[in-house]
């Protein structure tokens, strides 16, 4: 068994704010696998990420250079953390940092920092422009969709699809539009920030179903849990949810993992027609979602299983959990010393 003093796991995405990252839930899951015995450190990009100050989850936290820059400084910082504190494994939880970790995975592994991530080809499947072909392989549907690169094409798409519809970036942002003027405003804003194509998609109403799982990289699954959103925030983040068993969604996840040979965590976001039960694939996320601790809470500790699989330790890969388990988020206030914040700002780490 790995001893706590010997194995350090870095976890990013610890911005547990109104638009929460997955990191605090991942850290909590790792710590709750007591036999695994990992020490967890936080990896942040801003001194105001709340996870930095959650010392019951992270024994220390460190700031990193933002991953949109070059990779050399980013990797150098990880190696510096490894040299001064220890770092054996990293669980990146933000889309923006995944390409760097994937690109430098071999270099990090050679230095003794392991990861368990999808390939770059698999990562590109997250693009919303790839959803139609992925959905076809999973034998589920996608809402009627157009890819547009001009306002003329946008107008034609709006005419063909009809309102209401959703205007999306290929990777980020989604806005509902009820008129052409609204659609055009969203189109210009998304194109200016994220480029083309911009996606125009029919608005499908129904139950929002999500599934989190981990693929073993060889077509098998390390487990999965599905839930239905009960309440969401103004930013679209789940605030309350309930576990469910949906055979169609489970079968789609199995086909996804087997067909792509998916390696690492993933999330499928779907809409289920309340009358027919027909599933529409809305999004694929190549990482743990912010709600992934829900799976741990109902008995399927996916971060713990992923780490165990990577290290060759015994694990339970069954999907045994009860439907009807309820999940509720809440806010929480922390009081700490200002010196902690100042250390993060000035030195890039907690003491």
What does this structure look like?
- With 351 residues, the protein is α+β, with helices and mostly antiparallel strands.
- The protein has three domains: 8-117 and 333-347, 3-Layer(aba) Sandwich (Rossmann fold); 123-127 and 205-328, ATP-grasp fold, B domain (D-amino Acid Aminotransferase, Chain A, domain 1, 2-Layer Sandwich); 144-202, Dna Ligase, domain 1 (2-Layer Sandwich).
- It is built from twelve helices and 14 strands.
- The protein has helices at residues 23-32, 71-84, 98-103, 105-110, 120-124, 131-138, 151-161, 180-194, 247-260, 293-297, 302-311, 338-347, and strands at residues 8-12, 39-44, 60-63, 89-91, 145-148, 165-168, 174-177, 198-202, 207-216, 221-232, 238-244, 263-272, 279-285, 326-328.
- The strands form three sheets. The protein has a six-stranded antiparallel sheet, sandwiched between helices. Strands 3-2-1-4 form a four-stranded parallel sheet, with helices on one face.
- A hairpin with a 4-residue loop joins strand 9 (207-216) and strand 10 (221-232).
- The protein is globular.
- It starts with 7 loop residues before the first strand and ends with a helix.
- The model has no long low-confidence stretch (mean pLDDT 92).
Key attributes of the depicted protein:
D-amino Acid Aminotransferase, Chain A, domain 1, Rossmann fold, 351 residues, four-stranded parallel sheet, alpha+beta, 24% strand, Dna Ligase, domain 1
């Amino acid at each position: 068994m790995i001893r706590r003093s010997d194995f350090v796991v870095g976890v990013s995405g610890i911005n547990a704010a109104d638009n929460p990252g997955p990191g605090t839930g991942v850290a909590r899951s790792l710590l709750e696998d007591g036999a695994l015995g990992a020490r967890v450190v936080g990896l942040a990009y801003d001194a105001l990420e709340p996870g930095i100050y959650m010392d019951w989850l992270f024994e220390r936290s460190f700031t990193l250079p933002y991953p949109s820059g070059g990779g050399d400084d980013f990797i150098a910082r990880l190696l510096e953390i490894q040299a001064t504190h220890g770092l054996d494994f990293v669980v990146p939880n933000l889309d923006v940092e995944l390409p760097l970790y994937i690109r430098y995975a071999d270099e990090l592994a050679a230095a003794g920092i392991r990861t368990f991530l999808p390939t770059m080809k698999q990562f590109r499947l997250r693009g919303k422009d790839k959803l139609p072909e992925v959905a076809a392989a999973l034998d589920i549907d996608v809402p009627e969709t157009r890819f547009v690169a001009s306002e003329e094409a946008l107008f034609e798409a709006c005419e063909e699809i009809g309102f209401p519809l959703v205007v999306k970036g290929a990777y980020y942002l989604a806005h509902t539009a009820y008129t052409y003027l609204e659609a055009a405003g969203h189109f210009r804003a998304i194109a200016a920030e994220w480029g083309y194509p911009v996606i125009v998609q029919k608005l499908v109403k129904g139950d929002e179903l999500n599934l989190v799982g981990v693929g073993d990289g060889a077509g098998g699954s390390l487990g999965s849990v599905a839930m239905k959103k009960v309440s969401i925030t103004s930013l679209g983040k789940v605030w309350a949810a309930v576990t469910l068993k949906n055979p169609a969604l489970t079968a789609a996840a199995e086909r996804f993992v087997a067909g792509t040979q998916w390696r690492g965590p993933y999330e499928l976001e779907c809409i289920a027609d309340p009358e027919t039960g027909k599933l529409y694939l809305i999004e694929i996320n190549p990482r743990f979602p912010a709600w992934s601790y829900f799976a741990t809470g109902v008995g399927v500790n996916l971060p713990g299983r992923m780490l165990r699989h990577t290290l060759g330790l015994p694990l339970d890969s069954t999907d045994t959990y009860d439907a009807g388990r309820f999940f509720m988020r809440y806010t929480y206030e922390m009081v700490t010393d200002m010196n902690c914040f100042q250390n993060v700002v000035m030195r890039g780490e907690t003491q």
